[in-house]
């Protein structure tokens, strides 16, 4: 409902109130909807598109409404002209497909995972060899990512003076009156933040804080893969998809530990729900039959279905006498 409201209001602002819904100046003609910048709307619509994609896959009876909002979300991404939002949504679609692969039987999982790994390796080599062409010609960016690499280099140089604990939470960016003055003089414009979530986190909390975040992040990734593998519901794909989103979204922009933003709230909620029992587990049942390779006749493999614990507890031994039958019936 929240993403649906964002989509509707952004369309209204862009059509009926273009003074507020469409940007001017350097980004003239690009949509920002109900937000202050087109990149914020792009990030939200990438997230919205992934949510409505999951709803389309989950709801077999009423797919029309989620499909309509999915279409509107994609249209808004195009109207923002945000290439980063398209890349993020494409990666989230790939994660959704990868989660379906994780739920395959063991022998198919090995084949599919190997194929995906090989294709990913080839794609990574191709991107590395043609990085400048992709950035400049396809994404329409300059090699410095609109000056971001200069900010990152200056921040890394300044971080050497406070490497372990950083400069304190929200104690860095205070214009020419704070430590940020060094970066502003280097890039020669008023920089509001590091334009990278991980660099920003290091400036606030140092390398120790950054390391603690990555430890928690990778624990969440491993836990989300376990949840996907051991469940069948489409809703259990959401945590892994969102973890991919927050990682990619924090490369060109920053939303880690940022106040008044939904992205950090969603990350915390995903982290908490990953360690909460699912409905099936809370009822004492296995969420789904898990597949393990077991050799049988002709060298083939077959899945082992684990019986639910509740079924095992309710199992009653067959009585061996008529007296036992009467007692069992009672």
End-to-end Cα distance: 51 Å
Number of helices: 15
Count of distinct strands: 0
Category by helix and strand content: mainly alpha
N-to-C series of helices and strands: HHHHHHHHHHHHHHH
Radius of gyration, in Å, reads 25 Å
Biggest pleated-sheet summary: none
**Overall mean pLDDT:** 78
> Helicity range of the residues?
55-70%
Residue runs with pLDDT of under 50 for 5 or more positions: 282-330
Strand content: under 5%
Overall, the morphology is globular
Account of the protein in words:
With 330 residues, the protein is mostly helical. 62% of the residues lie in helices and 0% in strands. Helix 3 packs antiparallel against helix 11 and helix 5 packs antiparallel against helix 11.
Question: Features of this protein?
Answer:
15 helices; 330 residues; 0% strand; globular; mainly alpha; disordered C terminus
């Amino acid at each position: 409902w929240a993403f649906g409201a964002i989509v509707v209001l952004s369309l209204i602002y862009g059509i009926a109130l273009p003074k507020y819904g469409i940007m001017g100046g350097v980004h003239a003609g690009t949509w920002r909807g109900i937000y202050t910048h087109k990149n914020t709307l792009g990030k939200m619509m990438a997230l919205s598109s992934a949510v409505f994609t999951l709803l389309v896959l989950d709801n077999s009876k009423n797919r029309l409404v989620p499909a309509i909002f999915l279409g509107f979300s994609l249209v808004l991404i195009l109207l923002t002209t945000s290439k980063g939002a398209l890349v993020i949504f494409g990666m989230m679609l790939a994660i959704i497909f990868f989660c379906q692969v994780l739920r395959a039987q063991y022998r198919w999982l090995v084949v599919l995972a190997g194929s995906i790994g090989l294709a990913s390796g080839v794609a990574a080599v191709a991107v590395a060899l043609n990085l400048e062409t992709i950035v400049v010609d396809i994404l329409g960016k300059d090699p410095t990512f609109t000056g971001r690499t200069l900010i990152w280099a200056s921040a890394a140089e300044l971080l050497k003076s406070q490497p372990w604990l950083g400069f304190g939470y929200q104690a860095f960016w205070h214009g020419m009156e704070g430590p940020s003055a060094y970066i502003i003089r280097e890039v020669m414009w008023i920089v509001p933040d590091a334009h990278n979530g991980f660099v920003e986190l290091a400036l606030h909390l140092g390398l120790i804080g950054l390391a603690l975040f990555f430890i928690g992040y990778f624990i969440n990734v491993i836990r989300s893969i376990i949840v996907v593998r051991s469940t069948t519901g489409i809703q259990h794909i959401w945590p892994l998809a969102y973890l991919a989103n927050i990682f990619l979204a924090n490369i060109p922009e920053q939303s880690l530990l940022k106040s008044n933003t939904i992205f950090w709230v969603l990350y915390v909620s995903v982290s908490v729900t990953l360690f909460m029992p699912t409905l099936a587990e809370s009822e004492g049942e296995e969420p789904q039959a898990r597949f393990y390779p077991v050799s049988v006749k002709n060298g083939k493999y077959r899945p082992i279905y684990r019986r639910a614990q509740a079924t095992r507890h309710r199992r009653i031994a067959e009585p061996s006498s008529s007296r036992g039958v009467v007692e069992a019936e009672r």
